[in-house]
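pls design
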């Protein structure tokens, strides 16, 4: 959830850290801090977003060619300057930054307190700095031909940690960064001007596209001379260098005010790229589905909604039942897994802890796993038996928009492959190009801005649909609530009279998602709402007398979940703008949820 960035090389580290942290802010943003090493260790940290902190803390004035930086999303300990990273040892000579959770921090802290260490934060992370210090003073970290005493002290400290962690450590007088990764993302960038560390590749794309994706438990030591990789026993290992295919421009806002709007607008293209798959792999996966005994889709948030949409497509189009389970609830279903079960794990980031935990449980039981992710090199991209990439390019806004529609398209592609005709999906997706272009056009945005003005003062918004339109309503409600902070909830149209109808008062806004194949039933649900004074907003290809407002979208049959989601993304964006909120960084949320 936090963002980690590190640099060692020929340049002054602090301006590079400030730029890198800015690019990482979407991972967490309640506090920020850096440590640089010159003749002494310099720490600058505090509460707030990077732009404010940069000025206030004069981040770019810190000196040294070695530096580590962190943007925090609080888990252990409240949002205070003391709890922000980097954390230091008792003498302020060692500094660490950490992403993840140290499960055994309490017992380590207790032992270190008894040994006289003084702690200054409430975090689990701080124990790492003291543990390294303790190892050094114990001489447990004596130098050897294989590394300095600092490196050995770090290795011994890392070996003691339980939980998930990506850690960067520096020490006064040492021109190096020592790093480790276990169950938390960390990648290494190799550039002419030095070595970079980050939670993902996007923040260092402007310096390099050459990257090393670390294995779990890998240790890394980087100094001005270069970088070396070690396994958890500190034996040197080789790691392959990959080239990132993402473009730097894709990770920039360009002419857009916000990443959210940029990413919404990109969808005419990104859904086409979602179809560009190795068809031999798609066919292999289709035959795994056919021969499997039990198919599970596991995911969280918007990715879960895409899987739910997929389950309707599998049922309707391919006549196949698949199970869709929230990754965080998957432990309740694990006992059904066998070596004949097929598990699809779907995650934009590929680092969502709940998803990875479910994947590991599936692998333990011998089930095969298909990973669907947007991030090459992410944990998920490496832990499955088969891999499909979304090809959406970097998604920087905390909200999923373009990756959601890509996921839906990939579900449709799998379903068409099961019917033996993946090309049908590819052609139909091509046919959506102009529709999406129109739905994200300036004139459409003006209309949705108008609607947003009317809705911005509301406390509650409801959304209904049936079948594929129900899953669309779920996703639309998530988008609106997370970015506008308006309570927004979706219901299956048929469920209204089983309870939710009690919520409808004079003027309550209710969005109704309509498709040609179930229009009669959903329109009669809309009438039930209208009869109780509700304000009905139709999302459909035709206008009905029951609608008070109408969002015109073409009817695209099984691809309606793509086409109907897009104006709702735009509406959510406009609501945030109306309410003067930052759509890229909704409060309390982080892009990559790497803790359970
Ligand atoms: C909603 C949103 C989240 C993510 C969820 C899963 O806009 O972005 O609900 O969909 O946190 O993330 P991934 O797909 O990275 O596993």
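designed seq:
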């Amino acid at each position: 959830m936090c963002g980690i960035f590190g640099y060692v090389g020929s340049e002054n580290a602090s301006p590079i850290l400030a730029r890198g942290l800015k690019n990482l802010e979407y991972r967490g943003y309640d506090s920020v801090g850096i440590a640089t090493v010159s003749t002494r260790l310099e720490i600058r940290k505090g509460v707030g977003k990077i732009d404010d902190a940069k000025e206030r803390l004069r981040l770019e004035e810190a000196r040294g060619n070695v530096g580590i930086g962190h943007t925090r999303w609080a888990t252990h300990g409240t949002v205070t300057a003391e709890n922000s990273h980097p954390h230091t040892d008792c003498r302020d000579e060692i500094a660490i930054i950490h992403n993840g959770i140290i499960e055994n921090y309490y017992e380590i802290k207790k032992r270190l307190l008894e040994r006289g260490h003084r702690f200054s934060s409430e975090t689990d992370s701080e124990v790492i700095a003291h543990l390294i210090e303790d190892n050094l003073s114990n001489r447990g970290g004596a130098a050897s031909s294989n590394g300095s005493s600092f490196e050995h002290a770090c290795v011994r400290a890392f070996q003691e940690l339980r939980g998930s962690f990506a850690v960067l450590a520096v020490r006064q007088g040492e021109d190096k960064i020592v790093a480790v990764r276990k169950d938390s993302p960390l990648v290494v960038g190799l550039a002419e001007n030095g070595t970079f560390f980050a939670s993902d590749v996007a923040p260092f794309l402007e310096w390099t596209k050459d990257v090393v994706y670390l294995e779990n438990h890998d240790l890394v030591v980087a100094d001005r001379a270069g970088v070396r990789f070690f396994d958890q026993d500190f034996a040197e290992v080789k790691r392959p260098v990959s080239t990132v295919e993402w473009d730097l421009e894709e990770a920039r806002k360009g002419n857009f005010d916000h990443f959210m709007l940029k990413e919404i607008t990109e969808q005419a293209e990104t859904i086409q790229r979602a179809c560009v798959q190795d068809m031999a792999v798609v066919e292999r996966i289709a035959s795994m589905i056919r021969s499997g005994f039990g198919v599970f889709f596991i995911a969280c948030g918007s990715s879960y909604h895409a899987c739910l949409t997929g389950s309707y497509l599998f049922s309707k189009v391919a006549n196949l039942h698949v199970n869709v389970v929230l990754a965080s609830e998957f432990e309740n279903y694990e006992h059904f897994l066998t070596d004949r079960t097929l598990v699809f794990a779907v995650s934009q980031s590929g680092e969502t802890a709940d998803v990875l935990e479910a994947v590991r449980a599936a692998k333990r039981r011998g089930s095969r796993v298909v990973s669907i992710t947007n991030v090459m090199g992410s944990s998920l991209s490496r832990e499955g038996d088969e891999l499909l990439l979304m090809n959406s390019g970097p998604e920087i806004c905390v909200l999923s928009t373009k990756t959601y529609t890509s996921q839906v398209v990939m579900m449709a592609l799998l379903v068409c492959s099961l019917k033996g005709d993946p090309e049908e999906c590819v052609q139909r997706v091509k046919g959506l190009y102009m529709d999406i272009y129109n739905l994200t056009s300036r004139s459409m945005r003006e209309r949705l801005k108008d609607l947003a003005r009317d809705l911005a003062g509301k406390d509650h918004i409801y959304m209904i649909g049936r079948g594929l339109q129900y899953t669309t309503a779920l996703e639309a409600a998530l988008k609106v609530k997370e970015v506008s902070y308006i309570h927004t909830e979706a219901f299956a149209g048929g469920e209204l009279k089983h309870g939710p109808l009690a919520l409808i008062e004079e003027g309550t806004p209710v969005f109704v998602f309509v498709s040609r194949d179930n229009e009669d039933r959903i329109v009669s649900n809309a009438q039930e709402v209208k009869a109780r004074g509700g304000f009905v907003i139709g999302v459909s290809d035709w206008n009905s007398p029951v609608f008070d407002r109408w969002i015109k979208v073409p009817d695209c049959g099984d691809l309606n979940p793509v086409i109907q989601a897009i104006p709702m993304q735009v509406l959510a964006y406009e609501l945030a703008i109306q309410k003067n909120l930052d759509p890229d960084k909704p409060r309390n949320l982080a892009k990559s949820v790497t803790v359970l």
